Amino acid sequence: MEPRAAYSELLRRVAEICDLSSASALLSWDQETTMPKQGAPARARQLATIAGIRHDRFVDGRIGELLADCEAAPGKFEDIERTQLRELRHDWDRATKLPRSLVEETASAESSALEVWRDARAKSDWKAFAPHVRQLMGYSVQRAQALGFTERPYDGMLDDYERGADEERLDALFAHLRPRLTPLIGPVLERRGRVDSSCVRRPLAVEKQAEFGLAVIRAMGFDLDAGRVDLATHPFCSGIGPGDTRLTRRYDPNDLRPALYGIVHEAGHGLYEQGLASELRWTPLGSASSLGIHESQSRLWENVVGRSRPFWEHFLPDLRRNFPSEFRDVTADQMYRAVNEVATSLIRVEADELTYNLHVLLRFEIERGLFAGDIQVDDVPAAWGEKCGELLGIRPKNDAEGCLQDIHWSMGAFGYFPTYTLGNLYAAQLYEAAQRDLGDLDGLIAHGEFAPLREWLRAKIHRHGRRYLPAELVFRATGADPSAEPFLRYLHAKLEDVYGI
Ligand code: ZN
Hints:
Number of helices: 20
Radius of gyration: 23 Å
Low-confidence stretches: none
CATH topology of the largest domain: Neurolysin, domain 3
Number of strands: 3
Strand order of the largest sheet: 1-3-2
CATH class of the largest domain: Mainly Alpha
Mean pLDDT: 96
Bound molecules: zinc ion
CATH architecture of the largest domain: Orthogonal Bundle
Oligomer: single chain
Helix content: 55-70%
């Protein structure tokens, strides 16, 4: 076929596949927010059917022919179109390696495992969940092997979430981070008297917490006409499609921090989804560069902005409007300290910035042990307790606050956790660069002016979708290769400020 015509047909087909992905995303969102419990088996079936149809449409030989027609005439295309073809080729080559039966069975198994995980977590019963973990691990290995990672399937899983990541590189990264983080924990805990978080740990009406959270994400620029916020067991952000980005939240009626930083985090993801250039929507480039980059957006808003002193200088009056008596005598400086409290806790999503990456390391080590056969699924609770003790100095009392706390394994998402650490590192590096470009960013934030930062992120990161691979995107935005140093600088500065070390 004539290359331009082939290209148009390709994009038309990709757009249909995007629609199918949107439909599954919406069904999954519904499953987590509003679906009645007994709808679960039918939902598993619906998701499997769509996954199968989507897969069939995508691996259609016609797509391969059209791609080849385009690739034979690169001169007929502009840069951005050649990049579209590059990403489509990448995805198509991978998808054609996966048998349809594997795709369908995986989707169905994941949907069932999600329900079992929820119950198992409520009852703190790893044994009930373990067979599903074994089954999903099996599918993940088959998938990685089909994709060509025959020797080291875990590398294939890591690469699935962050292209270019593998066990060896991540091992080196954590080997660099760990000795720079763990020695700080003791001295910080010795100075724990410098932070009093009682001002945020008190009964706080959840409706008022919700209102304040909405005010914050509106100020960040999250567009509620193109998104919404609902309750769920696990906070997440789902980009259903253009004009429809959904966030979820949960509350702690006795602590301001989990709900506030949960929603700010998810809104950071949401801004990324909403900021994609309109011309890339429904195209191969129309999604995030990687999960690590996605996480950099959420962590940048949650931590670098949301846990800064200028943030509280600006938002404390708003908080007081919602809670006039509770925060009457609290200062911005007290808020700043309270939200930066370091405490060795068991729950990853509520961990402070010093210990968070150690929670990730714990999961990375369990996963690599599982896939290497060094840890058996039945022994995960014991291994978890041991590693948790070693890294954080505490041990969970039960599975719910240990190995059952995260949703990821119930979704077959092995190899996902390290992207959280990559996100933390990218976030600090991006913020440093934004500060360089925008001047007094702290001053802007103290005045509630979030648009310059948001627009900087939009121009440097959001609008590009998958145009650049993660490392290149970071390089283009910051002028440097991805590195752990900006994060370590940032963390040291904060610990010095808050804890005097
Ligand atoms: Zn996130």
